[in-house]
Amino acid sequence: MEGRSSSSKTMTTNRRPAAESKTPSRICWVILSIILFFTIVGISVVGALSFAQSTAKPLLQIARLTFQDQQGSLVNQTAVVDQSRSTITYYVTSLSNRTAVVLFDSQNGYVCYKPAEQSACFLRRMDHQDLENIQLSFNASVHRDDPRLLQNNQTKYVQEFLGIVAIAPVDPAGVGEAVRALCELGSIYWVRKGDGPGKQRLIYLCIDICFPSNICVSICFYYLPE
Questions:
Q1: Dist CA 167 CA 18 (whole Å)
Q2: Is 82 exposed, middle or buried (0-12, 13-18, 19+ CB in 10 A)?
Q3: Distance between alpha carbon 98 and the CA centroid of its chain, in Å?
Q4: Is 191 within 8 Å of 164 (Cβ atoms)?
Q5: Which residues are registered as beta bridge partners of 164?
Q6: Residue 38: other Cβ atoms inside 10 A
């Protein structure tokens, strides 16, 4: 009897360490689970914050300024920069509250003019100077609630003549989405740079626009002979 008792005690004593050894393993698994849970939660929170910040960024940038044209009249200009579409749209408003629109579409390589209170648009291809001007506008585009005033003694005025080719309208299908949206209610006509209308033809209209380089351009249109 004593032999059996002592052997059973020995077996009981041998089982306890095995049972006790399982306890630290369970604790380790619990700790690892907790760490993993908080790691996943942290990654989710950081991702959500990053997404919120990215979506909070404005899609458009707006720059406003006020300048005097060559006749001394004040003109308000708003430049809307859309870097996602590589476009800059200038809204030029005179004191009589008439607004002309000039669109620079570097993605498709066009400059489009829409005179105030007219449905027709005038289109030409961009050149090297246009690319420089819009790059300056991209770099200088900031949100401004108050218009900036250009000083006359710091501004260079340039005049540019564009001849209207009125033989046939441009096919809207090939001019890009931005131009189509601007000119959806009217026809589009090609224009090309020239030396002016001469004595036999009159200037049709002019649009004044200023760039961040303090260069203001008076763009004047006239009809070319058919």
A1: 98
A2: middle
A3: 25
A4: yes
A5: 191, 223
A6: 10
Amino acid, res. 221 = F
Express each pLDDT in 114-146 by its tens digit. 999 888 999 999 998 888 888 877 776 654 444
Instruction: Quote the tokens at residue 178.
Output: 């931005």
Contacts of 184 (CB under 8 A, 6+ apart): none
Give 58-79 pLDDT, tens digit per residue. Answer: 567 888 888 877 777 888 999 9
Q: 214: left (phi > 0), else alpha (psi -120 to 50), else beta?
A: left
Half-sphere exposure of residue 28, counting CA atoms within 13 Å on the CB side? 5
Q: Which residue has the tokens 């420089």?
A: 132
Rg (CA), the chain: 35
Kindly state the DSSP code that residue 38 receives in the 8-state scheme: H
Model confidence band, residue 1 (pLDDT cutoffs 50, 70, 90): very low
Q: Which helix (H) or strand (E) holds 72?
A: none
Write the burial class of residue 209 (CB in 10 Å: 0-12 exposed, 13-18 middle, 19+ buried): buried
Is the overall model pTM greater than 0.85, yes or no? Answer: no
Q: What is the separation, in whole angstroms, between the first and last Cα of the chain?
A: 129
